[in-house]
From TrEMBL:
Keywords: Transferase. This is Acetyltransferase. GO terms for cellular component: cytoplasm. It comes from Hordeum vulgare subsp. vulgare (Domesticated barley). It holds the Pfam family Transferase. One of its GO terms (molecular function) is acyltransferase activity, transferring groups other than amino-acyl groups. It comes from the Eukaryota.
Amino acid sequence: MGSMGNVRIQSRRMVRPEPTASRLPEPETTIHLTPWDLKHITVEHIQKGVLLPKPPTTGGHVDVERLASSFARALGRFYPYAGRLAVSVAPHSQSLTISLRCSGEGAEFIQAVAPGVTVADVTASLVVPRVVWSFFPLDTLLGADAAAGTRPVLAAQVTELADGVFIALTMNHGVADGTTFWHFFNTWSELSRAGDDVMISTPLPVFDRSFLGSSCAVPIPLPFGKLEDVVGQRVHVFPPVQECFLHFSAASVKELKAKANAEVSSSGTDSTISSLQALLAHLWRAVCRARQLTPEQETAYIVLVGFRGRVGGIPASYAGNAVGNVTAKSTAGDIVGKGLGWAAWLLNRAVASWDEASTRDKLASWPQEPSFTSLPAFVAAVPTGTFTGSSPRFDVYGNDFGWGAPVAVRSGSGNKVDGKVTVYAGRGGGGSMALEVCLAPEALARLVADEEFMNATSTVE
C-alpha cells in the first residue's frame, strides 16, 4: 500500500458563510453547549467522506470553485459552524464555560491530489488502506483543541485521485453528532447539484436549545481551572488497529433478521428483533470468537441511541448533539453458544430499557457531576467491548455533487480504537447495510477468516 504515493495539499483557504435567501446574515451571537455537546468535547472529530467518480463532462477535472461556492452556501445555512469555540474562565473561581461563538470566521477548505491512488485501491481491499486517513483534515484533534486555539469547528477536503474524487468532511463532535454531520453533508451536495438555486429540499438546521427548559440552564460552568484539565491525560499513541469494510446485501440482512426472530420466538420471548440488531448480534458473536475470549469472560456491546423523536421537543433537524448510549452485557460463552437470537435479544432489551424520564434526569444532573466521553478509558475499562456509532438511516449515497452518486463511503482516523464499529446504509439500498470494523490486527485477521461470519457478507461495494 505504500506504493500508492502521498496525498499532496495544493491549497488551503478559509471559506466564509454566504447568506442565502432563506437565512440572512445573523449578528454575532453565542450558542451555549448542552451537556450532550460538552460530553463529546474530549473525543476526536467526526470524519466521514464519499468516493465519487471523476466528472465526465469536464475532462475528468473537478470544478473546485463550484464545490467551494456550494460549501460557502451550506455554511450560510449552518452559520454557527463558521464560528469558533470560546472558553471563558470565571474570575476568582475554578470554573470555565465553553461556547460556540457565531463569529462567521469561516470553515477550512482544502484542495489536494493523490495521483497514485485509484478508486480500486480504496474499494477493492477488504482491509481499508491507511492512505484513506490522509483524505481528512483536522486529524488527531480533540474537540477541546479547537477551543484552545483558533481552529475551525468544520473543515472539508477535496482530493483528486487518479480516476476519482474523495470529498471529506471533518466536524467537531462538541458541536454536532452524526445526524447533524450528514445533514450538513446532504445540504452541501444538494446545493452543489442545484447550482445557484437556493430552494432545496434539505431542511434548514435548528439551533434553538429551548427544549432543554429550565431543568438545564446554559451556559454550564465546568469545575475546572483550565481547559486541559477537562481533557485529562491524553493518549497520544493508541494501540494499533486495522479496519475492514464489510457489505451485507438486503437479502443477507433479511435472512439474519428472520433467523434471530425465529430463535427468539421459539424461546417464548415476546420481542421483535430489528434488522440492525440482528446484524450487530451476528458481528458481536464473531468478534468474541476473533478475540478468542474464554467462555467466562464478560463482554459488552454499546449501542448509540438517538434522542430526536424520542425526547419531546427536539426538532428533527436540530443541529447539535442529541445522542446517548445503552449497553448489553453477557459472557462470551453465552454470546457464542446461545445463538444469534440470544445476542440480538440482549441488544433489543438494552435499547428498550431507554426511557425519556431518566434521560432528562441525567441531563439536569450532569452540571453537578460532569463526565466526559473518553474512548481510551472505555477500551481500558472494557477491553472485550464493542461499540457501534452512526446509523443506516443516514443518507450517504444520495450525496451527488452534480456528476454522479458516490461509489463508496469511508471514514478518517478519528476515534479509531479497538472495538469501534460504524454502520452505514448499503450502496444497493433496499435494506442492505455496511459495517466498518476496527479491531487489533490479529483479531481482525481472524474475523475475516471466520466462515460463519463472512458467509453473510457480500463482495459488492
